[in-house]
Design a protein that fits this description.
- This protein is of the alpha+beta class.
- The chain folds into two domains: about 130 residues; about 220 residues, no CATH class.
- The protein is about 20% helix and about 30% strand.
- The chain has seven helices and 21 strands.
Length: about 350
C-alpha cells in the first residue's frame, strides 16, 4: 500500500478548524556542511507543508509558509531568534507561539526547545523529527499506531511505581537506573489538540521513556550506578556511572578519546538524562538514531528537563555546549540488552530478555 501522508497527518494530529500549523526545517549556514540526506529532508518539509495545506482546505485550519532557520549544530540546543518565512525575516518564537501545531523536520533535534514552548502556551503541541528520512515512509512511519500505543501503555505500566531499572548488556556489563521520584511517559504517535501530558512527540513514534532520579533532593543522592558499554566497530568503550553521572570513560581507541572530549567540554553532559524502550515494530535499525531508538532500549546523556528531569540549559557552561544524545541497544546494534527488569517494592517485572520484549 502506498504511503498516504495526508492520512498520517490526520491520524496523528487530527487538526481542527481554526488551528494554525507551522512546518519548519533547519538549513546549513556553514559552507560545505550540507548533505544529500539533509537536502532531501528539506524537500520532505516542503511536501509536509503542502500536505497540511491540502488537509487544511477541507478542515478549515490555516498553514503558514515553510519556516526556515539556521541550524543549531547540536541536538537539544535552543532555537535561534530569527528565521525566514515566505522570503521574509521572522522571529522564530513569535511564529511558533502564534501557532497551535508545529512540525519540525530537521537535521538537529529541536525537541527540548519545542517542549519549552509548550510551557509558554497551553494550546501548542509539536512533533520533532530530527534525521527523518524518506525511506521511513515504508518503515516506522507506516506502523499501526494503535499497536504502537498499546505497547507504549504496557511498558508504562511495567515502569509505574518502580524504584529502579536493572539492565544487563550482552557484554556482561550492567547498570541500575534509579527511578525514584519519576514517572514514565509515552510517545505513542498521537498528538491531537488538547492532549493531556507531554505535548511533544517524535515521528516516527513509539517509545516509553523515563528520566532517572538526578539527585536534586538535599542529602539524597541518585542511586544510578554501574557500567554501560558502547561498541563501535572493534572498539569497546565503557562508561563508569556513579550517582547518575558518567564519572569515567574507559578505552584506548578513537571513540573513547572522542567521548572523553565530549564529557570534558561540559560536566552537565555527564548526566544520565533518559532511559527508554522503543516499541515500534516497523522500525528498522540502520544507524539513524531517530528510528533506531524506536526499535529497542536506549539511554541518553545531557539535558533532561524536556523529558521530566531537572538538568536544563542553565546547568551547562554555555548554550553552545547543551546536548541531549541517545545511544541505542536495539537488535541490530553491536551491543544489545540481555535483561531489563523494573524493580518495585513488591514485584520484579521483566521487560526484555536476550534483546526481545517479553511484555508483548
Amino acid at each position: 500500500m502506498a504511503f498516504d501522508l495526508v492520512k498520517l497527518l490526520a491520524d496523528v494530529f487530527d487538526p481542527e478548524a481554526g488551528e494554525v500549523v507551522t512546518v519548519a526545517c533547519d538549513v546549513p549556514d556553514q559552507p560545505g556542511k550540507d548533505t544529500p540526506a539533509w537536502a532531501e529532508r528539506r524537500g520532505m518539509a516542503r511536501e509536509w507543508q503542502q500536505a497540511f495545506a491540502a488537509l487544511g482546505r477541507g478542515r478549515g485550519f490555516s498553514v503558514n509558509p515553510l519556516l526556515l532557520y539556521p541550524a543549531t549544530w547540536a541536538n537539544g540546543a535552543e532555537l535561534p531568534e530569527t528565521g525566514s518565512m515566505g522570503g521574509a525575516t521572522v522571529q522564530v518564537e513569535e511564529v511558533l507561539l502564534g501557532s497551535t501545531l508545529a512540525v519540525f523536520l530537521t537535521q538537529f533535534s529541536a525537541t527540548a526547545a519545542l517542549d519549552g514552548l509548550t510551557k509558554k502556551k497551553k494550546d501548542f503541541r509539536a512533533a520533532s523529527m530530527p534525521g527523518v528520512e524518506r525511506r521511513m515512509e515504508r518503515t516506522a512511519l507506516a506502523a499501526d499506531y494503535r499497536e504502537v500505543a498499546r505497547r507504549c501503555r504496557l511498558l508504562a505500566e511495567a515502569l509505574a511505581g518502580a524504584a529502579s531499572l536493572e539492565v544487563t548488556f550482552s557484554t556482561g556489563h550492567s547498570c541500575t537506573f534509579d527511578l525514584r521520584y519519576r514517572q514514565a511517559e509515552v510517545d505513542d504517535g498521537f498528538l491531537p489538540r488538547g492532549k493531556k501530558g507531554d505535548r511533544v512527540i517524535n515521528l516516527p513514534s513509539g517509545e516509553t521513556f523515563i528520566v532517572p532520579y538526578e539527585g536534586e533532593r538535599p542529602a539524597e543522592p541518585s542511586l544510578t550506578r554501574g557500567v554501560i558499554p558502547l561498541r563501535d566497530g572493534r572498539e569497546t568503550v565503557l562508561f563508569r556511572v556513579e550517582r547518575n553521572r558518567v564519572v569515567r570513560t574507559e578505552g584506548e581507541g578513537e571513540v573513547a578519546r572522542k567521548m572523553r572530549a565530549v564529557f570534558a567540554a561540559d560536566p552537565a553532559r555527564t548526566n544520565i538524562a533518559e532511559v527508554a524502550f522503543g516499541c515500534n515494530d516497523w522500525a528498522e535499525v540502520t544507524g539513524n538514531v531517530l528510528e533506531d531508538e524506536k526499535a529497542g532500549f536506549h539511554w541518553a546523556y545531557g539535558r533532561s528537563d524536556h523529558l521530566g528531569g531537572v538538568v536544563g540549559v542553565r546547568d551547562f557552561l554555555s548554550p553552545n555546549t547543551v546536548v541531549h544524545q541517545d545511544i541505542v541497544y536495539a537488535r541490530g546494534n553491536p551491543v544489545v540488552v540481555t535483561e531489563a527488569v523494573a524493580v518495585a517494592s513488591d514485584r520484579r517485572t521483566r521487560i526484555m530478555r536476550n534483546g526481545a520484549y517479553v511484555l508483548f
